[in-house]
Amino acid sequence: MEPRLFQTLLEQRACSDCVLKPMCKPAIVRPDELERMSDHVLPRRSLSAGERLYEQGQKVRSLFVSQAGVFKTETSAADGRLQVLGFHFPGELMGLEAIAGMRFRADAFALEPAVICEIPLSALETAASRQPEFQHHLLQAAGSCLADQQEHVELLAMRQADERVALFLIGLLQRAERISGKEEASIHLAMGRTDLASYLCLTIETVSRTFSSLRDAGILGVQGRHLTVLDRQRLIGMSGSEGAKSTRRA
Amino acid sequence: MEPRLFQTLLEQRACSDCVLKPMCKPAIVRPDELERMSDHVLPRRSLSAGERLYEQGQKVRSLFVSQAGVFKTETSAADGRLQVLGFHFPGELMGLEAIAGMRFRADAFALEPAVICEIPLSALETAASRQPEFQHHLLQAAGSCLADQQEHVELLAMRQADERVALFLIGLLQRAERISGKEEASIHLAMGRTDLASYLCLTIETVSRTFSSLRDAGILGVQGRHLTVLDRQRLIGMSGSEGAKSTRRA
DNA sequence: CGGACCCTTGACGACTTTCAACGTGTGTGG
DNA sequence: CCACACACGTTGAAAGTCGTCAAGGGTCCG
Fold first, then answer.
1. Which of A37, A75, B79, B162 is an S-S bond match for A242, by CB 3.0 to 4.6 Å?
2. pLDDT at A241 > cutoff 80
3. Residue A174: how many CA atoms within 13 Å on its side-chain side?
4. pLDDT in tens, B187-206
């Protein structure tokens, strides 16, 4: 497959959902043309899998929106332990949590080959001052980030490992369906078990065991990073504690 | 003590640190005079301990900043379980996470007698459009909220109960010191063990036991909700896993 | 073919939860 | 004034879940 065409398709899909649509005009033009556009078009950059977008402690000059490819943000504590704070899908804003201290609080890595839009903070603020509509969108985006983080906390508040995994999978399904617009049953995990476990505050062994038990229960098909949701209702049922217990006994 | 005078003192202290300082002019005037001021002065309201400020699912018309008194935000899941998402000290913005869906995602309760500033969303956005400086502050405030949430996740990522408790106490100390400007050793908990446990994703028994073991180790003085940090260095040492292990063995 | 990496599975142990009882302080009513 | 209920916090013992340690299989790549 021609990678250029593939990228273009991805870009079109991503931009239709992008938080920065009001200040961006990529639309139908080809990538090489985009580069030359001056006005509202944002600097772009492509990253390969595993490449770092920004680094913890680095001064913040820009925020980022993935246009294609999933990213992870990850802090490293003083003792060297890594903690994945979030996964970021196309159209989602990254870096906002850094602007209070003006330094990134985490590393950001591309989990797949990716294309990223970079928004210089200065451009962001001037655009917001001039266009009330964009300012509104920006606030909405900030609110979304915050809501996402709250959902992460709510996920971690689920005591049992299988509740957390179920809730995570449902979240992935919903994000995929929001992008594709249709009901999805298959999930491709952009992240490995290690990142997944860190995000869920579990060990990779526990994640693996949970996948296996979901497979044995006939709820999930597991082939490495390709998952298939076989029984969506029971998966949803597991995502709350009461539901989880009754499902497990059944 | 005259409650009116007491309130006024609290207001002055809180406002000096308030995220909304640029759009607010309370300063020295007495509360009853404030009520009548029109321009930039925000609607105020006082709540008694336990009173609800806003409710999950309610439509968002305003955001809030505590001026005096600590608040908690708490979601109730479908199965009735409650989860405390955050504690909010004077000067901190509340409700931003709701604006993406235009509905509050949690209940907010005053934990103590409190005074609150209410900021209608419309006022917020118009003020931000007109004053680039205020828009900047607003973004910073959003970033702070996000950073706080991330710290909460990092706290929950601490595996051991004593690490979480230690990290939480250190956070409280820092918030108190940021407000008072001087080093603090005593902590007054505005919240009960139940809210604390929920926030830390532990049971109240575990929290209680952890306090007791910190007391027995000579690190913390515990008298109900009044805590005294006796050995700050060891407390800090416990907040990372390596430190916690070596401290525990010593 | 060997090695590195990722994922899975098993056995054991540690930690937290659960269940239960007790103590304290506060407010209410006799 | 005391008895009582009630909320809150503490402590103990037992049970369960997940982490740790260890081993093994699979795939990709030099």
1. B79
2. no
3. 8
4. 999 999 999 999 999 999 99
